[in-house]
Amino acid sequence: MPWENNTRPAQTWDFKQRTRSQEVIPEKLVDYTWQEVASFSTERANREIIEINHKQPEIVTFLIGLTKGMSEEARALPIYLFLVVHRMFQSRRKKVNRVSKEEISERYKYNKGLFETLGLIYDGFSSIQMSRQPYVMKFVLDALAEKDGCEQSVPLSEEHKGFIFLLLKTVVDILDQKSSNH
User: Fold this and answer.
1) E strand or H helix at 169, and its extent?
2) What is the DSSP string of 75-92?
3) Which of 93, 97, 89 is nearest to 30 (CA)?
4) Closest C-alpha to 172, from 115, 107, 114
5) Cα 166–169–174 angle (5° rounding)?
6) 147 - beta bridge partners?
7) Pair 21, 180: CB distance under 8 Å
8) 3-state SS of the chain: helix, strand, coil percent to 5?
9) Are the beta carbons of 147 and 140 closer than 8 angstroms?
10) Dihedral sign, CA of 46, 79, 173, 67?
11) pTM of the full predicted structure?
12) Quick check: 179 and 89 in contact, CB under 8 A?
């Protein structure tokens, strides 16, 4: 995979340090945002995705690139979840700085290693507890779990769910790092 070829040393992440710009996004804002995005028309959702691609092209490339082996419907899910998550950060923080390919790669490698070491693939509960944004990660976990019982659900294997969860955990961690209240 193209994201695994980076030879830069992995960054150490300190989950205990939290600046003002890294406040927890409240559960009410998370709920409001996903409900708002769920009410978008197809045309509006497509416009929003085009706009987010201009703001964070490396994240979109990351999500599309690493889901190539999935069905088209399954590949659309992480993009939709990214749209919702990005709006959560924008609503709370106002500005989300552009993310580089290197930052994504480092964080992805870190999370993948952490998940493998601790055996956390799709053990969302443990992953939520380790996140600086527990309500955002709970939304991601719930969205992946909901896909099973929903009429419009995209069939996803447990492996695909775990992989999408890992991708979105990477995205949430990076957006948390790159956002500010200014």
Assistant:
1) helix 158-178
2) HHHHHHHHHHHHHHHHHH
3) 89
4) 107
5) 130
6) none
7) yes
8) 70, 0, 30
9) no
10) negative
11) 0.81
12) yes
What is d(CA 176, CA 111) in angstroms, rounded to the nearest whole number?
A: 14
Q: What type of residue sits at position 155? A: P
**pLDDT at residue 22, as a whole number:** 58
Alpha carbon distance 42, 49 (integer Å): 11
- Tokens encoding 137: 């990660």
Is 95 strand, coil or helix?
strand
Kindly give the parts of the chain with pLDDT less than 70. Answer: 1-22, 93-94, 119-130, 147-153, 180-182
What 3-state DSSP class applies to 153? coil
Q: Which two tokens stand for residue 82?
A: 């990214």
Check the CA dihedral 172-112-78-156 and report its sign: negative
Phi, psi of 95 (to 5 degrees): -125, 130
The whole-number pLDDT of residue 4 equals 37
The CA-CA-CA angle for residues 125, 80, 14, to 5°, reads 45
Residue 156: its pLDDT value, please? Answer: 85
pLDDT at 159: 87
